[in-house]
Write a structure and sequence with these properties.
CheY-like_superfamily; about 200 residues; elongated; alpha/beta; phosphoprotein; Arc Repressor Mutant, subunit A; coiled coil; five-stranded parallel sheet; Rossmann fold
């Protein structure tokens, strides 16, 4: 999915200027005149980043940032403001903002910052999607296959696993083979890395 820049600013001239900058650079962008407008219309599932004004009528940029944190959004936030203060910058960065720029930001500087964080968010979303795909595959295993796979991941032999689970060694071989095949794994090291990736090393999920 193509990444999208969100511009949230109550000054129309600023929104239009930034849209023009990104259009020239061939980067998709959407503009919102308020935090409320952004929350009502934006699709947070689309990767990208947010260029956010600090001071706006009603909901401020910092308030929107906190709202997005509560929603679990991973979109990078770049504050761009003409009213920046040290306290505001510290608060914004403490809450996870990736940058804090003064208006008017130089187009080349703005593009430099945006391109970095667009790419990082796309990579983060891809990583999350790959992990979720692994989790989905794991959850389709039977309970016994999961149990055997965890033992395999510790490097135990089939006979040891059979004794540990109090089942026949042949049964272990069957469940081990099925689990490894379903997950596309070849070795105990593969199984260990897979379970670490998805956070399912133990049976507490």
């Amino acid at each position: 999915m193509e990444a999208l820049i969100r511009i949230v600013d109550d000054e129309e001239t600023v929104r239009n200027s930034e849209i023009f900058i990104f259009k020239l650079a061939g980067i998709p962008a959407a503009a919102y005149s308020s935090a409320e407008d952004f929350l009502a219309k934006d699709d947070l599932t689309v990767p990208g980043c947010i260029i956010l004004d600090l001071r706006m009528l009603e909901m401020s940029g910092l308030q929107l940032q906190r709202c997005l944190l509560e929603k679990g959004s991973d979109l990078p936030i770049i504050f761009l403001t003409g009213h920046g203060t040290v306290d505001a910058a510290v608060m914004a960065l403490k809450n996870g903002a990736v940058d804090f720029l003064q208006k008017p930001a130089k187009p080349e500087r703005l593009l430099e910052v945006v391109k970095v964080h667009l790419q990082q968010n796309k990579e983060l979303r891809l990583s999350k999607a790959l992990i979720q795909e692994k989790i989905n595959k794991f959850e389709r295993l039977t309970d016994r296959e999961k149990e055997v796979l965890r033992e395999v991941a510790t490097g135990k032999l089939n006979k040891q696993i059979a004794n540990e689970l109090n089942i026949a060694e042949q049964t272990v071989k069957i469940h081990r083979g099925n689990a490894m095949h379903k997950l596309g794994l070849r070795s105990a090291l593969d199984a260990s890395a897979f379970l670490l990736d998805i956070g399912r090393v133990t049976g507490d999920e």
